[in-house]
């Protein structure tokens, strides 16, 4: 790749292929692969990522909100798309665009049944979610009978899958809790299957579930962060490649004399003569105000430069006193060596948050 000449998010589709194949190699032959492409495919570009994965023959996709699914349909994605968090106001759109809703409460189930009937649907594919301990979305496991009664009463919908979500699959200290969730899921899936009289697909694993609980892959897995190159552990990270690199350039270099201050509110004062670089990326781009004043860093010519002063909306300033560099030189905010995980950890955050925060105004550039 040529060096960056402005702030860009470079997306390596070869790395995506690598991650997809690596994770797929962990699955049994007939286990289905659902790619989670919510939040612009974790801050990259949902359309390009989904097209690439559709070409690699992924089985289906999931998004969080309905309009994310609509954007994929508009772009020509034809595989099934599960909407993880539909709202009552979107159910008509879901049907019109052949999206498949997660039905997680009686409220949303009954609302969907009404709309499906109005639209004269038969056997419309839906996904029933049970809460096994995350306590976020999902029917209570005690409501199996009541849920199945509503479903057995109608031919408008058909349960394509039964699923649940793990609370701490990446945490080895929570193994017992996760195993308990998996057991609960097995029981609820068995009872529910018996009640409805046919066998939907079962799934519970996110990326860390796939890697740490191979016995719980069931019929399908839901992989997000792993596709984007993070395995939530040092060992797993080695087998994956971060697909996104956030790059920028040095816009200007300043020499500050002892006693001079830098940036808004003069939060930084030079204690000696120092050299600073101004970089065109700021809190409007996902580098939040938690960074700055010595917290967080970028990489210039192979060296770390710490972010000093307050983060501005469109710029940060970094200390380059000991770095040999010039205006126009490339700046790496994160890439496959200087990872988003490393930078995020400087503010006690995680790769997920940093990569999904890269604002839409930053140009996406694809390496194929
Ligand atoms: C986001 C999400 C996933 C993907 O999780 P990763 O840890 O990124 O693999 C899977 N299932 C549900 C319900 C989710 O919300």
UniProtKB/TrEMBL annotation:
Catalytic activity: L-alanine = D-alanine
Stored InterPro entries: Ala_racemase, Ala_racemase/Decarboxylase_C, Ala_racemase_C, Ala_racemase_N, PLP-binding_barrel
Cofactor(s) listed in the protein's UniProt record: pyridoxal 5'-phosphate
Pfam families noted in UniProt: Ala_racemase_C, Ala_racemase_N
Pathway: Amino-acid biosynthesis; D-alanine biosynthesis; D-alanine from L-alanine: step 1/1
Active site positions, chain numbering: 38 (proton acceptor), 264 (proton acceptor)
Domain Alanine racemase C-terminal span(s) in chain numbering: 243-367
Source domain of life: Bacteria
Modified-residue entries (N6-(pyridoxal phosphate)lysine), positions: 38
Keywords: Isomerase, Pyridoxal phosphate
EC number(s) given by UniProt: 5.1.1.1
SMART domains cross-referenced by the UniProt entry: Ala_racemase_C
Residues involved in substrate binding: 136, 313
GO molecular function per UniProt: alanine racemase activity
UniProt cross-references to Gene3D superfamilies, sorted A to Z: Alanine racemase, Lyase, Ornithine Decarboxylase, Chain A, domain 1
Function: Catalyzes the interconversion of L-alanine and D-alanine. May also act on other amino acids.
PANTHER family cross-referenced by the UniProt entry: ALANINE RACEMASE, ALANINE RACEMASE, CATABOLIC-RELATED
Similarity-based family: Belongs to the alanine racemase family.
UniProt protein name: Alanine racemase
Taxonomic source organism: Lacinutrix iliipiscaria
């Amino acid at each position: 790749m040529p060096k960056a000449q402005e702030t860009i998010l470079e997306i390596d589709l070869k790395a995506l292929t690598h991650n997809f194949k690596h994770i797929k190699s962990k699955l049994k032959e007939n286990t289905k692969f659902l790619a989670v492409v919510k939040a612009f495919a974790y801050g990259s570009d949902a359309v390009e990522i989904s097209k690439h994965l559709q070409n690699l023959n992924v089985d289906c996709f999931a998004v969080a909100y309905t309009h994310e699914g609509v954007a994929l349909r508009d772009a020509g994605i034809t595989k099934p798309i599960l909407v993880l968090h539909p709202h009552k106001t979107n159910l008509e759109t879901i049907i019109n665009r052949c999206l498949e809703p997660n039905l997680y409460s009686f409220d949303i189930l009954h609302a969907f049944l009404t709309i499906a009937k109005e639209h004269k649907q038969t056997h419309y594919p839906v996904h029933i979610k049970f809460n096994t301990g995350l306590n976020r979305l999902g029917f209570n496991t005690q409501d199996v009978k009541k849920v199945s009664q509503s479903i057995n009463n109608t031919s408008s919908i058909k349960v394509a899958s039964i699923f649940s979500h793990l609370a701490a699959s990446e945490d080895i200290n929570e193994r017992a809790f996760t195993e308990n969730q998996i057991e609960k899921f097995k029981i609820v899936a068995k009872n529910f299957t018996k009640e409805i009289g046919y066998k939907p697909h079962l799934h519970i694993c996110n990326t860390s579930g796939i890697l740490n609980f191979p016995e719980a892959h069931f019929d399908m897995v839901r992989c997000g962060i792993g596709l984007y190159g993070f395995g939530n552990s040092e060992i797993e990270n080695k087998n994956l490649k971060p697909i996104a690199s956030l790059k920028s350039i040095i816009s200007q270099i300043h020499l500050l004399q002892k006693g001079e201050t830098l940036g808004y509110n003069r939060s930084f004062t030079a204690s000696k003569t120092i050299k600073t670089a101004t970089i065109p990326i700021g809190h409007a781009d996902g580098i939040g105000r938690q960074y700055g004043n010595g917290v967080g860093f970028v990489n210039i010519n192979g060296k770390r430069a710490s972010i000093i002063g307050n983060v501005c909306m469109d710029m940060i300033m970094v200390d380059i006193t000991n770095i040999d560099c010039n205006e126009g030189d490339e700046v790496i905010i994160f890439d496959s060596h200087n990872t988003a995980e490393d930078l995020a950890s400087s503010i006690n955050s995680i790769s997920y948050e940093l990569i999904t925060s890269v604002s839409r105004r930053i140009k996406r550039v694809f390496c194929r």
